[in-house]
Design goal:
3 helices, outer membrane lipoprotein receptor (LolB), chain A, alpha+beta
Length: 207
């Protein structure tokens, strides 16, 4: 038996093991989201450059209603509001007095928002690898299957079944880190949070 034939079963076994590990990683990550129909949390968002120097800090609140609806409200240092209502993504910039409305379908498939608003589709958009425990959190790394996305990889840090940290790493070496606090699981969220009515006098741009 030549070398190739001797090594072939090893390569097949390694491939099957990697496939099984990936499937297990997706399943364990989805289990951490299981039973979570709505979610609300305050957040601090920090932007670091390629040298990991802090460039910007902002604060706000995130509300999720599964599937496919979210309300992301930045309160500091500038007010901005992002609402996904299941049909459209509405982006409101208070200082610019401008609203941009885009069809939601397909727009969020490879975005971090999809992770929270529809985690059952994680394996469609990401390769998921469990990273183990570090700094008292259980970490997962998500690699987008679509290389044309905004981020090269995303890291999620959990305390048991609660998401505490989300890190997004882009192709420029920058890292956007969201740290969650005042977390509420399955709160009774007002449906109005996921319906957007443009304020009077603002410019509305539809794409």
């Amino acid at each position: 038996m030549n070398l190739i034939h001797r090594l072939l079963p090893v390569f097949l076994l390694l491939n099957l093991s990697a496939t099984a590990l990936a499937a297990t990683s997706v399943q364990t990550l989805q289990q951490r989201f299981r039973g979570l129909d709505s979610f609300s949390a305050d957040f601090v968002q920090k932007l670091f450059d390629a040298d990991q120097t802090l460039q910007e800090t902002s604060k706000g609140i995130l509300r999720i209603q599964r599937p496919n609806k979210f309300n992301l409200e930045y309160k500091e240092p500038y007010y901005q509001l992002y609402i996904a209502d299941g049909l459209n993504l509405n982006m409101y910039d208070k200082d610019l007095e401008q609203v941009t409305i885009k069809p939601q379908q397909g727009l969020l498939d490879n975005s971090p928002a999809m992770i929270l608003s529809n985690p059952d589709k994680l394996s469609d958009s990401y390769k998921v690898v469990a990273q183990g425990k570090e700094d008292r959190l259980f970490w997962y790394e998500l690699i987008p299957r679509d290389e044309g996305g905004s981020f090269e990889r995303i890291a999620l840090g959990f305390d048991d079944k609660t998401l505490r940290v989300m890190e997004m790493h882009d192709s420029f070496g920058q890292t956007t880190r969201l740290e969650f606090s005042n977390i509420r699981k399955n709160p009774d969220l007002d449906p109005k949070l996921f319906r957007f009515v443009p304020p009077k006098g603002v410019d509305v741009i539809r794409e």
